[in-house]
Design a protein that fits this description.
2 copies of one chain form a homodimer. By secondary structure, chain A is an alpha/beta fold. Chain A contains 17 helices and 14 strands. A 6-stranded parallel beta sheet of chain A has the order 1-11-10-9-12-13, sandwiched between helices. A 5-stranded parallel beta sheet of chain A has the order 6-5-4-7-8, sandwiched between helices. In chain A, β12, α14 and β13 form a beta-alpha-beta unit. In chain A, α5 crosses α6.
């Protein structure tokens, strides 16, 4: 970890930047995949399975018997744990489904909004080194609460042609409609354009490698919505002299173990805490199974000493971290100053893993500084708010002259006449 | 207008499509503009003013004296009309700023969300044939209610180097922070990247021509958020035998006059209404100042006879119109079936112009079928919802074993250890 002591304010902008990733080569690969899947459908998908996953699939869709098998395979204790996490996530997310009142704006003019679920959504769940069934919880639960009719899921199979049972069990538990054994950019293409087997959807959610991410960005240009632009996962920890350095080190490492490009930043106003945290990281990292990944991530990470916790918060707001842990004496008071962050963890016992799995909040969050303009995934991400208005005869009498005056000033005579004809109540004008 | 009688269901998908616009040439032009503005800043902007608007600007920023002059120029009656529209829009949008309760998910685990305004936003207001000051109302009011700190606005000046006084007055009235005389793709580039004069922003809002739209899509790939993907404006009207054909014709025309590529669709279950509306359109269009534009738009428009109003609603949901007018006997009942639409107008007196200007709802809405996955602009568009969690000692005791179990199953040992070390309360593990 790079240690930086009292950096000048002018250097903050640079310090808070993220590594820039070149991607022109990536673009060609992804563009070809999108093009082929759109043109050839299932045929292209099966060929890519062969090419990238080295398997020949009899069917792209996970069968009911495969799901039953998976449900049987998951141990009971793990099932209970998943159900508790599900209950907590449901509890927190259910609050997000609200109905709004009708407002009488002026006599005879009523306006309101109604939340309506996006009919068809697609969830991408990565394969790779860890079976991220927690991401199934974080995407399928809000989709279900919103009331999405079709919840399509796509995830790469293992070399045996099967999907990890934990992922299947969680998808079954949360009410995913259809599950497909497709990974990579081709999965995004399939859900965006639809194929013989895979239904096309209106919005695609979920994390993935650079191919998946780029494919999501590209289908977005073609009119399919996506949840969030993506980048490597991040944590920023702010701590003062009251914090336990061992706790902080464990939080930094639980982020660092995600991937070699994870971003880990520690800010403090206390020199001793800074040194202790560094020592603790050095000790604890050696005990991790994923220590090679974690060490790699730590190489790009920073420990910064600043003059006060308020200054730490200023830096954090400039950085806009995906996860922000505030481990200070008056964490809640300091948290009132949070302007840019995805999810915030207050106090010494609020470790990031709590939010990753089971506190109830969503773990699909804006990375790469996007917290400056994006929220994490929520029930709202699966809804549209459609506005309604009902204007009565009295209403158009009230509001008509205002509308006419504004339409005339905008030189839109037709807009004015639509009012005029109503005020004259059906006489030809 | 094309007339289609009882089309087969299989043809609906095709009928509900939008014209596809080629854009590879456009891409090169816009890419060059973005690149130059990013590299050369104000110098490039001033050169583009010269080149595209034919004017040599002494300054890109609108001065306080120009604003004062504009405020004096707007007639009192128009000021009152704008203030009434502002009050209505504020009333409807204020309702969207809600604070959510804290939830105790399980003993010792509290979670909540806090709405925080995006700090810096950019509003683009087109110039061209009509001074769209109503769009200033629709963007600046929710930005202000959300609490955005910097509200930057960019709009092309006229050939005299001045901004239309109505636009300046409305921007002043609604609290826009800085106003710039920049139009086209270069305005989007300036707000996305920042220049010597123009502050860079985190999210860009507002309609525009194809260059502006494409520039918004391109800066989105670079990490700047945008409000909505855009396309030509649209209205779909559903009416039954009880509707007044003259009203319907006026609604269709108030959309058609927007631009030659506007989409206008009329659905009914009644043959006589269909014929009367067509006649009314033919008569009314000739009375419009913008009849050339309207006639052009009508060429691409459709009148469709279907077997029931329910079938009309099914078609509408497939089309996903920006504006939907339901002019039927039981409009409210039928409106319960709306799944895909931007803004809905119920009953014979609810003309689209009401929502365009003054009913209180927002007129920045998803076009081009994007209503399937997007909502219109609202206060939420200017906010992020940041999630917070506070886990106490008791909380981690409650939830810790669940987190550990899930982290272990995902093979993320570091995540598990962050809990373990806390359960052991600071002893080294």
């Amino acid at each position: 970890m790079k240690t930086i002591l009292y950096p000048e304010k002018e250097t903050w902008q640079k310090l808070s930047g993220r590594p820039v990733i070149g991607r022109s080569q990536l673009d060609d690969v992804v563009r070809t995949i999108l093009h082929r899947v759109r043109l050839e459908g299932d045929k292209a998908l099966l060929e890519y399975s062969q090419k990238f996953d080295g398997i020949s699939l009899p069917s792209l869709k996970v069968s009911p018997s495969e799901i039953r098998e998976a449900v049987d395979l998951v141990p009971g204790t793990l099932k209970s744990a998943i159900r508790i996490a599900k209950k907590n996530i449901e509890k927190f997310h259910s609050m997000q489904l609200i109905s709004e009142p009708r407002l009488e704006i002026t006599e005879g003019v009523k306006c309101w909004r109604r939340s309506v679920a996006i009919e068809k959504v697609g969830l991408y769940i990565p394969g790779g080194s860890a079976p991220l069934f927690s991401t199934v919880l974080m995407l399928a639960i809000p989709a279900k609460i919103a009331g999405c009719r079709e919840i399509v899921m796509s995830t790469p199979p293992g070399s045996d042609g099967k999907v990890n049972p934990l992922i299947l069990y969680t998808a079954w538990l949360t009410g995913v409609t259809d599950i497909f054994k497709i990974g990579g950019a081709q999965a995004i293409a399939a859900m965006a354009f639809g194929t013989e087997s895979v239904p096309g959807v209106y919005k695609i959610f979920g994390p993935g490698n650079q191919f998946v991410t780029r494919a999501k960005e590209m289908v977005q240009m073609e009119g399919v919505s996506i949840d969030l632009p993506a980048g490597p996962s991040e944590v920023l920890v702010i701590a003062d002299r009251t914090a336990n350095p061992a706790f902080i080190a464990s939080d930094l490492l639980s982020q660092a173990e995600h991937s070699a490009d994870s971003q880990v930043i520690f800010l403090t106003d206390n020199r001793e805490v800074l040194e202790s945290v560094k020592s603790e990281v050095d000790v604890q990292v050696l005990r991790l199974q994923r220590k090679t990944i974690a060490c790699k991530a730590l190489e790009n990470s920073m420990v910064i000493l600043l003059s006060s916790v308020d200054e730490c918060m200023d830096f954090s707001n400039l950085y806009a971290p995906e996860h922000l842990i505030i481990n200070t004496l008056e964490a809640e008071k300091l948290s009132e100053k949070v302007v840019n962050a995805g999810s915030v963890f207050l106090g010494q016992y609020s470790c990031e893993s709590a939010g990753d799995y089971a506190s109830g909040t969503n773990h699909t969050l804006p990375t790469n500084g996007f917290a400056k303009s994006f929220s994490g995934v929520s029930v709202e991400s699966f809804l549209r708010k459609i506005s309604f208005q009902e204007v009565s005869r009295k209403g158009i009498e009230n509001l008509g002259p205002v509308i006419q005056s504004l339409a005339e000033a905008e030189l839109l005579e037709g807009h004015k006449k639509a009012v005029e004809i109503r005020l004259k109540n059906g006489e030809n004008v």
